[in-house]
Amino acid sequence: MKKILVVDDDRTLRTILSHHLHKQGYQVNEASSGVEALTAFEQEPPDVVVSDVMMPEMNGLEFCRQLRASRFGQLVPFIFLSAKGDLEDRIKGHTIGGDDYLTKPVDPRELIAKIEAQLERSRRIHSEMVMLMQHLASRSPAMPLPPAPEKPLLEKERTVEMVSTQPVDLPLTPAEARVFWEVIQGFTNKQISDRLFISPRTVQTHLSNILNKLDLANRSQLVRFAYENGYRLPEPK
């Protein structure tokens, strides 16, 4: 069962959204601020985050920024749901790390469609990553794929295994980290530009900074570095 974290200081709205999401078969956790949401995320990482922008203690933008700066929060789909619907507000939400931005009031059916689209995107990304790693492994005997487990892992065992094999943090800014994950999935600068809502020149600037910081010469070396150091997407649940 996929897990959705709904973050909003409006209890009535949280209740309504949770009701519709439960009807669609999702498990829903709730939080009323960014501070609560960070704690909830650490305790039980969700498959998708849906967050308001204007909240007490910590607003949604800061919550998203801190989440994207953490190792485990870089890839989780993040959907803003806000009464602030001006173009500049939407651009800011995407720039800081949001994958989608919906304006209140929202039809729950549209939100569910957006959530399902993000889950499907995550599934495709994982599939493409696996194929890329298999391709690289076939070209380089020095890069064997990890052996498959002899028996299916229990959910608790899978969680322990994933945490224990997480790589160390990279010396990258949050913006550079997002470009890093896009590059190692095989996307071009233009595709990354469209996906992250930044210019191709900005993508290239981040990529150059990444290569310099990791002492690498090109994209191919970056992909090899990512594989050899354990930077791989977790398997979909």
UniProtKB/TrEMBL annotation:
GO terms for biological process: regulation of DNA-templated transcription. The keyword Cell membrane does not apply. InterPro entries: CheY-like_superfamily, Sig_transdc_resp-reg_C-effctor, Sig_transdc_resp-reg_receiver, Tscrpt_reg_LuxR_C, WalR-like, WH-like_DNA-bd_sf. One of its GO terms (cellular component) is protein-DNA complex. Residues 3-119 form the Response regulatory domain. Keywords: DNA-binding, Phosphoprotein, Transcription, Transcription regulation, Two-component regulatory system. It comes from the Bacteria. The modification 4-aspartylphosphate is found at residue 52. CDD domains: LuxR_C_like, REC_OmpR. Pfam families: GerE, Response_reg. The keyword RNA-binding does not apply. One of its GO terms (molecular function) is transcription cis-regulatory region binding. Transmembrane segments: none annotated. SMART domains: HTH_LUXR, REC. This is Two component transcriptional regulator, LuxR family. It comes from Crinalium epipsammum PCC 9333.
